[in-house]
Amino acid sequence: MSQIDAAQSLDNLKLERDAIVLYDALSEIERDPRRASAFRTIAGNERRHAEVWATKLRELGTEVPPPGRPRVRVRAIIWLARLLGTRAVSDLVQALEGDEESIYEGQASPEVLAIAADEREHAEIWKRLSGGAPAAEVSPEVLREIHGERAPGVVGRDERWHRAGQSGTLRAVIFGVSDGLVSNTSLVMGVAGAAAGESRFILLAGIAGLLAGAFSMAAGEYISMQSQRELYERQIALERAELEAMPDEELAELAAVYRAKGFTAEEAEAIAQRLFADPEHALDTLIREELGLDPDELGSPIKAAAGSFAAFAVGASIPVIPFLFGSGPTVVVASIVLSLAAMFAVGVGVSLLTGRGAIFSGVRQVAIGAAAAGVTFLVGRLIGVTVS
User: Fold this and answer.
1) Rounded to the nearest 10 degrees, how much is the dihedral formed by the CA atoms of 175, 178, 183, 185?
2) For the chain, which end, N or C, has fewer CB atoms within 10 Å of the first or last residue's CB respectively?
3) Which DSSP letter does residue 61 get?
4) Residue 146 to residues 102, 121, 268, Cα–Cα distance (Å)
5) Mean pLDDT, to the nearest integer, of 29-55?
6) Nearest to residue 77, comparing CAs of 310, 315, 348?
7) What is the Cβ-side half-sphere exposure of residue 174, based on CA atoms within 13 angstroms?
8) Minimal CA–CA distance to 12: which of 100, 118, 129?
9) Where are the alpha helices (DSSP H) in the chain?
């Protein structure tokens, strides 16, 4: 074996050890004993994965290093879980698992193939926990079924961790805060450049920008989500009507879907007939297979609008806060410093979703925000001087 193999095995061992720390922590934080048991199940699997790579290193004649501190991203997720609960970090954990799966996808080896079955089990556990299913449903019998035959389409959803958190609640919050922060910082700095220290004008502009932006975001999100939901509901209603009016044609269509997925004609026909024994089950399958929709996750326009409003308002309030307590150049500087610090924190939050380095993401966010604020400040100064 080459040194590259040893280096890759070391990286894989680090991934699994980080996962052990994460799931051990989640099991300790979680107060629901059934959810905690599910996390311990995953932690046990991760321990087996770590032993796989430790054994691989010994076979390569490489010393197995002692466990070190987990990555910043893992420590941040654990901290958020302690603060907000394990449900709040669901998307972050699944994004982390998605990055791990992506790394393993490029490694064709017996060790990776052996780990893949456990990863499908983890995906099923998270799908049930995130979907609101009782944690008790994650039983040994269910876990055994995970490794058996599953309906096409379900496999794809389960094995792609980044698709499991389709609601993207935390993602929407982070980017909503980022939008509010960058846009209102730019507005405040533009007015500061034009108003020449008149803090009352800057404060008024900042509050107006906060409210206008938050209401605009909320209205846009509501209209977008409601329109999408109405479209999906119409498609589902049409599919229901077709099922009632033309059951034989719909059965043939579903059988064709399974033939396209590699089943023989007899197998596809048998699967379709079994599904059509329950009309509601048949409709659910048709919606998922033909329309590519999950009828249980169409989204709530009101929740989406409220979330967008709150997230934007939180970000937009940061550059305004110093002007509530004073005036003059010092307050402008305080606003800049506070805003840049918040931008760095938002960048770190983005890194939890993207997997990029926390420092890189933070500095990138600061650079983008500072550039936007700098340009609007110069434009405001130019306009202010011209008007004067």
Assistant:
1) 170
2) C
3) T
4) 20, 6, 21
5) 86
6) 348
7) 22
8) 100
9) 3-29, 33-59, 72-84, 90-105, 110-130, 140-146, 154-159, 161-164, 169-195, 199-245, 247-260, 265-276, 279-286, 301-317, 329-354, 358-387
Using alpha carbons, list the distances in angstroms from residue 63 to 6, 33, 66, 87: 10, 38, 9, 38
Q: Within 10 A of 105 (CB to CB), how many other CB atoms are there?
A: 10
Confidence (pLDDT) at 124: 62
pTM (whole model) above 0.70: no
Nearest to 173 by CA among 298, 368, 338, 312: 312
DSSP string, 262-275: T--HHHHHHHHHHH
> Which phi and psi (to 5°) does residue 264 adopt?
-70, 165
Structure tokens given for 73: 């991203």
In this predicted structure, the answer to whether residue 136 has a pLDDT above a threshold of 50 is no
pLDDT, greater one: 163 or 230: 230
- CA gap 157, 117 in Å, rounded: 15
Confirm if 23 and 40 have CB atoms less than 8 A apart. yes
3-state secondary structure of 60: coil
Maximum distance among all Cα pairs of the chain, rounded to whole angstroms: 83
The mean pLDDT value for 271-294 works out to: 76
How far apart (Å, rounded) are the C-alpha atoms in residues 309 and 332?
26
Element (H, E) at 148: none
What CATH number should be reported for the domain whose range is 3-164?
A: 1.20.1260
Question: Which of the four pLDDT bands, split at 50, 70 and 90, describes residue 140?
Answer: very low
- Structure confidence at residue 103 as a pLDDT band (50, 70, 90): low
DSSP 203-218: HHHHHHHHHHHHHHHH
Q: What is the DSSP track for 155-174?
A: HHHHH-HHHHTTT-HHHHHH
Element at 66 (helix H, strand E): none
Q: With 0-12 CB in 10 A as exposed, 13-18 as middle and 19+ as buried, what is 170? A: buried
pLDDT at 239 over 90: no
Distance between CA atoms of residues 284 and 270, nearest Å: 17
User: Percent of the chain, pLDDT > 70?
Assistant: 75
Q: At what angle do helices 72-84 and 3-29 cross, to 10 degrees?
A: 10
